[in-house]
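Case study 2.
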Amino acid sequence: MITLSPRLKTAADMSIDAKRIIDVGCDHGYLSAYMLMARNAQFAYACDINQGPLDNAAKTAAIYDLADRMEFRLCNGLEPFCGDECDTVFICGMGGELIADILSRATWTIGKTLILQPMTRSEKLREFLSRNGYGIECERAVEDDGRLYSVMRVRGSIGDCGKNNGYLYSQNFIKDEFYYRYIGKLLQKYRDIYEAKLNSNKNVSEEQRIINILEDAYAYR
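Prediction:
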């Protein structure tokens, strides 16, 4: 059985009854293979903008005898798909703004379950989701290689994307140990920005607003 990184394992575990999946930015195809072997998915499209990852994914499929249940597509995001091919889309390991751009060019995704794992700028992704009719049904933090990330399960209009929280976290963020560590890291980041701007005689009203939001979230640990 394939052992996934904590990020990808969390993403896989957050899917619900996924049968036909699209894995955007498939790397070695481990997530697709895991979904087929361990989570009862029936078929997986492994996609990447570069040929190398697709070749690696094909090797993974061959090793685990999954070639007849996987298709490999060289493509930019979700451009070759219309939505009929899948019920669940995984986009993991990319910047939040890039994920938002991919979704903006595939409006059919609003009718699917999306498992999103931004590496950076998650607040920009939450803002995009909120402004375009998506909702975060569930969100949780995970530690991977010493860093903390969020993983989101998104569906059309179901759930809050964190508009009232400055898009720093959603209301459906699971409040476990990693959540408070995630909030704590954000809080330290914005306190550092606040101090640096204050020492440069710059306006810190926005940083103070964000710090207040995060302090309020952290206070309930």
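Helices lie at 6-14, 30-38, 51-63, 96-104, 122-131, 177-199, 205-218.
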